[in-house]
Amino acid sequence: MKNKVIAVILLLLFFNIYSSAYAQTISDENDYIKAVMESKELHSRLGEMYTGYECVIKNVYNKPVTIQNITVWDNANSTVAYLSVKRTAEDTAKAAISSGKPLALPTLGLSMLAATAAVPFALIGNKVGNSNAQKESKHYDKTVSAKTTLEPNEQVTIKTMALKKYIPYVRITFLNPLTEENMVLELKK
What we know:
It is a single chain. With about 190 residues, the chain is α+β, with helices and mostly antiparallel strands. Helices cover about 35% and strands about 30% of the residues. It has helices spanning about 1-20, 80-85, 90-100, 110-115, 120-140; strands at about 25-30, 35-40, 50-60, 65-75, 150, 155-165, 170-175, 180-185. Strands 1-2-3-6 form a 4-stranded antiparallel beta sheet, with no helix packed on it. Strand 1 and strand 2 form a beta hairpin. Helix 2 (about 80-85) runs antiparallel to helix 5. The longest helix is centred in the C-terminal third of the chain and has 21 residues, at about 120-140. It starts with a helix and ends with a strand. Residues about 15-20 have low confidence and may be disordered.
């Protein structure tokens, strides 16, 4: 019993170290703005294929800074991401019924009967899964499309997602408050 408890504790410790190694933070800063992009775990079906990213842009200067444009590349559109993980009712029903086929002969067909009886529950679960993925995809589609002026210590947040193993590239174009010239701050890996 004592060995099992120690094994579980070691497993949890390993999992915490392993999962924190994949949390990524990219940042860049100059005299006027600071930008930090952090990866976020997605909790719906989207997490199977995508990683969420939250980019916070903050004015660190003592006067207002105007952001002209924020461009994001290598990210996923929320609608496309949702549609890529959405499962149809027909596919869900087929999968539920086919789960009873391997044991059909040994159980004299009872596994097929049980699998058929499970179809309505699988369909309800599928509907909930699709709904959660759609809600989460909309949560990670927040961008700044227009010219924005940030007061001192004010910040703006962009949320996006990208396919796993890809990291979005963010380019922030803003006006230098002293010279009124365009400056660029980039977040890339």
